[in-house]
């Protein structure tokens, strides 16, 4: 599966926990629209590819968990 691009519409979201999910596509670039996000947990996920450069737009991000990602 994949994380839908509509994720970018959740602009007030502060914590996104995707730990252990089986999403197999790259993260959508719309992840960069989550400007209120302070924590992003991608541990034990199946995401492929690199993190999108839009991740740099997450200026409120304090914690990014990437343990054991594929």
Mean pLDDT score, rounded?
92
Which bin fits the share of residues in helices? under 10%
Strand tally is 3
One letter per element, helices H and strands E, the order comes to EEE
Strand order of the largest sheet: 1-2-3
Residue runs with pLDDT of under 50 for 5 or more positions: none
| Helix-strand category | mainly beta
Major sheet size, sense and barrel closure = 3 strands, parallel
Count of discrete alpha- or pi-helical segments spanning 4 or more residues? 0
Rg of Cα set: 11 Å
Q: Please report the distance between the alpha carbons of the first and last residues.
A: 15 Å
Describe the global form. Answer: globular
Oligomerization? single chain
Estimate the strand proportion.
5-15%
Structure characterization notes:
With 70 residues, this protein is mainly β. The protein has strands spanning 15-17, 39-41, 63-65. The chain is globular.
Name its key features.
mainly beta, about 70 residues, 3-stranded parallel β-sheet
Topology (elements, then pairings):
Blueprint: E1 15-17, E2 39-41, E3 63-65
Parallel strand pairs: 1-2, 2-3
Briefly say what this structure is.
This protein has about 70 residues and is mainly beta.
């Amino acid at each position: 599966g994949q994380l839908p691009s509509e994720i970018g519409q959740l602009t007030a979201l502060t914590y996104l926990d995707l730990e252990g999910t089986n999403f197999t596509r790259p993260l959508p670039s719309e992840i960069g629209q989550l400007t209120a996000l302070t924590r992003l947990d991608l541990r034990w996920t199946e995401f492929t590819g690199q993190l999108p450069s839009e991740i740099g737009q997450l200026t409120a991000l304090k914690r990014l968990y990437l343990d054991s990602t594929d």
